[in-house]
Amino acid sequence: QAKVAGKSCYRFYSRAMDQAVERRVRMEQDLRGAWDRGELSLAYQPIYRLGDGQLVGAEALLRWHHPEQGSIAPSVFIDVAEQSGLIETIGPEVLRVACNDAVRWHTQFNRGKELFVSVNVSPRQLRSGELPDQVATVLRDTGLPASQLHIELTETAVIGDEVHASALLARLRSTGVKVWLDDFGTGFSGLSHLRRVPVDGVKIDRSFVSDVLRDPDDLALTTAIIAMAHSLGITVIAEGVEKEGQYAILRERGCDLAQGYWIGHPVNVQEFCGLLA
Ligand code: C2E
Ligand code: MG
Ligand code: MG
Ligand code: MG
């Protein structure tokens, strides 16, 4: 396409592409040692039960504080980690820290006994096939009860190769951990997928939640997801709850759990302990 547009144009595109590639390569290099240099940490976003408003768990969200560039969003660097394969070393560290923190919540705070921690896992981590063993090892090493660890996978991780993915999910669930489908509703698979892919929970994507008060279609879809999931024995979690009205309508429609800026922002582990105290 660029070639057809002429030589100068080609050079322009090529230089812009070089710069993008260069930025990516540099980010990959920086990310390589980031964990060991202590630049990566976990933030925890509280998850509440809608029925009684109880704090029941937290989602672990990776944070990168770059020495020169400051904080870099996961939406940018997770992709680099995924493409480069670095996620295969970072992922297990995330799992370990999250489980260790959760065990501390259980031992330090009486009412923390029931708290779960939910960890995001990328498609590549699932496909490597090592995840079930990694999970079993980290549960053994940390002593966290398996039911208190939730693994979040996006639809893209299970789409395409459903037979393989279902087998991996079954192995994962046989360790006792719960598997949640993240960003649910954004992929192409939709509700029919839930019959074939064994999961314990679905997280309704923020894009639906943000419009439940304004857009009757989004409310209808959200209500349908809740009904369908419940009929299959699947828990429903709403993400991105930013308004009291959204919280209220989700509770009214029977949604089980929720997280979002209106209820609680992601915070560092000390601040999260403050919420428990
Ligand atoms: P996600 O798993 O869907 O996480 C939810 C994202 O929504 C988080 O963004 C969270 O900070 C943000 N959020 C929560 N409540 C609200 C709200 O009320 N309004 C809005 N607008 N946003 C809200 P974050 O932390 O930037 O993470 C982005 C994505 O990066 C995550 O999406 C997840 O896919 C990925 N990610 C984060 N940590 C990890 C990790 O340790 N491993 C892997 N593989 N992916 C991760
Ligand atoms: Mg998530
Ligand atoms: Mg999500
Ligand atoms: Mg809409």
From TrEMBL:
The EAL domain is annotated at 24-277
Question: Per its UniProt entry, which superkingdom is the organism in?
Answer: Bacteria
Protein name from the UniProt record: EAL domain-containing protein
Originating species: Cognatiluteimonas sedimenti
Q: Which residues of the full protein are shown?
A: 437 to 713 of 713
